[in-house]
User: What shape does this take?
Amino acid sequence: MVMFRFAGIIRKYEVIYTLLRHGKGSRNSAGEYVRPVIEYIPLRGAIQPLGDRLLQADGGRYNEDDRRLFTVYKHQKGDVIEHNDKQYTIDDEGDRADYSDTFQYKMKRVSTHDPVR
Assistant: This one.
């Protein structure tokens, strides 16, 4: 099997982004619900706009506000990413592990009226 090594290329263009990891809510001793704590995990990756071909190929599912993420970190669909004060949701499982040392994801921008906090 051929393994393509792209991590060095990503390092050249990478920026810091934040993964927002949600804990689980719980009940305190009085039985009141305690909201889950959000853990902010700094990671590195290359965040790029979607190309015109991708915008057209997915039948209008994506727009100019959405992005692609290239990283060595394995994300799950639904992970929330924050970059430049904007939040994005990982929208696909960019599994290239069989032939590459990196992962590629499409990210949908979270509405500015309903951010994850």
